[in-house]
């Protein structure tokens, strides 16, 4: 894939009116890591989640209040997680990460089990000022760590594990329904 207007240290910033630039995960980390280290806050989920084993090849679309956020295809050992938000958004978590992030509580029904989140994230709000300082438009797309497009918008949050090995969007409404400061 040919990427245009990609920001790198010392290079010109992207055109803020270009909403069609697709940033790689590496580019996003390069742009946001200094900001997250300097201004990021630590959050933890305040609500339990429901989860079930994924079927290999199963495609899950993550849909928030403001529409399609991303989609992902499950591999063997992955889990489908459903948040307890108004949107009830679902997403895939790889098995090796799932066991580090969630603690089994009880069955919720014949399909889903209830889990308590155990992980923490570092995140920043995507304010118009922060986006402008990075040369980003109010809405942009990037490649999520699972390899498909993810949209981010002004007002959303961008975050990831405190190791900052990956970044993902946290839609504004679902962020406030799901997370609290640690």
Keyword list:
five-stranded antiparallel sheet; single chain; 4 helices; 182 residues; alpha+beta
Quick structural summary:
The chain has about 180 residues and is of the alpha+beta class. The protein is built from 4 helices and 15 strands.
Topology (elements, then pairings):
Elements: E1 22-23, H1 25-39, E2 41-45, E3 49-53, E4 59-64, E5 67-73, E6 79-83, E7 90-93, H2 95-101, E8 102-107, E9 113-117, E10 120-125, H3 128-133, E11 139-143, E12 149-153, E13 157-161, E14 168-170, H4 172-178, E15 179-181
Parallel strand pairs: 1-11
Antiparallel strand pairs: 2-10, 2-15, 3-6, 3-9, 4-5, 6-7, 8-9, 10-13, 11-12, 13-14
């Amino acid at each position: 894939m040919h990427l245009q207007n990609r920001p790198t240290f010392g290079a010109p910033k992207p055109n803020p009116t270009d909403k069609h630039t697709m940033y790689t995960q590496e580019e996003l980390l390069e742009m946001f890591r200094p900001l997250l280290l300097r201004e990021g806050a630590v959050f933890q989920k305040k609500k339990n989640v429901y989860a079930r084993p994924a079927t290999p090849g199963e495609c899950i679309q993550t849909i928030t209040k403001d529409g399609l956020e991303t989609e992902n295809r499950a591999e063997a050992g992955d889990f489908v997680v459903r948040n307890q938000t108004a949107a009830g958004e679902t997403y895939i978590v790889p098995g090796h990460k799932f066991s580090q992030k969630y603690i089994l509580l009880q069955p919720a029904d014949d399909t889903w089990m209830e889990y308590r989140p155990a992980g923490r994230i570092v995140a920043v709000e995507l304010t118009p000022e922060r986006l402008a300082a990075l040369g980003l438009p109010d809405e942009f797309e990037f490649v999520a760590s699972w390899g498909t497009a993810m949209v981010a918008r002004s007002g959303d949050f961008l975050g990831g594990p405190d190791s900052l090995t990956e970044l993902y969007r946290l839609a504004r409404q679902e962020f406030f329904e799901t997370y609290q400061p640690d």
